Amino acid sequence: MSTPARARPAVEALPALLEGIVRQHVPGAERARIENFACSTSGFSTETFLFDLTGLDGGGSLGLVFRRPPEFQILPDYDLRRQFLVMQRLAASPIPVPTVRWMDPGPAALGTPYLVMDRIDDVIGVSDVPPYHQTGVFAETDDAGRTLLWNGCVDTIAAVHRLDPRDYRLEFLAPSGGASPSALASFLRYALEWAYDDHPLHPTFVRALNWLNTHDYTPERVGLCWGDSRMSNVLYGADLTPVAALDWEIAYLGDTAADLAWLFMTDWVSSPLPGNAPAPGTPSRDETIARYEDAVGHAVGNIRYGDVTAPLLLAVALVRLNARFALEGVDLADICARRVEHILDGD
Questions:
Q1: Residue 326 burial (10 A CB sphere; 0-12, 13-18, 19+)
Q2: For 29-46, how does the pLDDT look when each residue is reduced to its tens digit (9 = 90+)?
Q3: Per-domain residue ranges for the chain?
Q4: Which residues contact 150 (CB under 8 A, 6 or more apart)?
Q5: 194, CA 20 to 30 Å: which among 77, 141, 306, 316?
Q6: Rounded to an integer, what distance in angstroms lies between the CA atom of residue 9 and that of residue 244?
Q7: Rounded to an integer, what distance in angstroms lies between the CA atom of residue 28 and that of residue 58?
Q8: DSSP secondary structure letters along 19-55
Q9: Are 237 and 123 in contact (CB under 8 A)?
Q10: Cis omega (within 30 of 0) for bond into 130
Q11: Residues 49-63 as b or e (16 or more Cβ within 10 Å = b)
Q12: Cβ–Cβ under 8 Å, residues 51 and 38
């Protein structure tokens, strides 16, 4: 007889419900307590909470992270198990990912699937909001520091792309329509229509989708794409070198050039400087591509296609956030339309 599903608990009820579960899963935690349970301020694609597990045998404590699906999805076809498996299987790779403890795929215990992983402490991060070009360690360091931070992210992307997905049992990340660019374009059309619901798509996004249809190609290489390869998804040590790569919700197999295009796009849309320019010391696009190509040992591929797909994917999330917050007279996705125009009108 199956256990009935629990209703989705309110945030304030989670620590008490989770405490008994954690005691069963963490060695030496039979009398441990959850303290300092707090919502992460970054990201909307997954609900993320940080907490301390105190009173372990021997008097120690442990920092942990709890993640569950969002109540309001900003991307279609959300799959928590996907990100859990990616991090679990990359643990044996050179890519520094958070250590996942366990995942409960069913709703019986806490109303939804959830996962628990180790928290990474004593690290530095950059933020998208407020933008890192204006606030925080990236803005406040010198030109050499910004170069180091940026190149650390680029080197992490290159390290991901040097992996053979088969070595880490990641073949399941192949899209249902295959790893071709046309499958990605079809997904983006579906995702945008899902996000806009019954409303018409922004004409610039229609233009971009049509451009993708007329610029299909066969990738020279298909590999593991991080999917969310941006500065704010890298944690750095005090020496400004990478310590961990975060957020694997949208990892997939495809043309890896898309990851570099995503980095360029997220950097451009987050910049408050004139012309969306980067802060001084940030390596240029050409310098970045050259460093990347040297690290992976081959040409970057069709990054132009990725330059168009990247803002379309971000637009899906921003259109949904517009709906979630009922922002009258504001179009969060307009920055994505401007990025598309910036790319296509550069022809």
A1: exposed
A2: 999 999 999 998 777 788
A3: 11-118, 137-344
A4: 231, 282, 283, 288
A5: 306
A6: 30
A7: 8
A8: HHHHHHHSTT-TT-EEEEEEE-SS-SSSEEEEEEEE-
A9: yes
A10: yes
A11: bbbbbebbeeeeebe
A12: yes
Q: Say how many Å lie between the first and final Cα of the chain, rounded.
A: 62
Q: Which helix (H) or strand (E) holds 234?
A: strand 234-236
| CA-based R_g, the chain, Å | 21
pTM: 0.94
* pLDDT tens-place string over residues 203-235: 999 999 999 999 999 999 999 999 999 999 999
- Return the bridge partners of 236, or none: 124, 242
What tokens were used for 36? 């300092």
Tokens of 157: 């992307």
Q: Which pair of tokens denotes residue 105?
A: 């795929």
Quote the CA–CA distance of 153 and 245 in Å, as a whole number: 9
User: So what's the architecture of 137-344 in CATH?
Assistant: Alpha-Beta Complex (3.90)
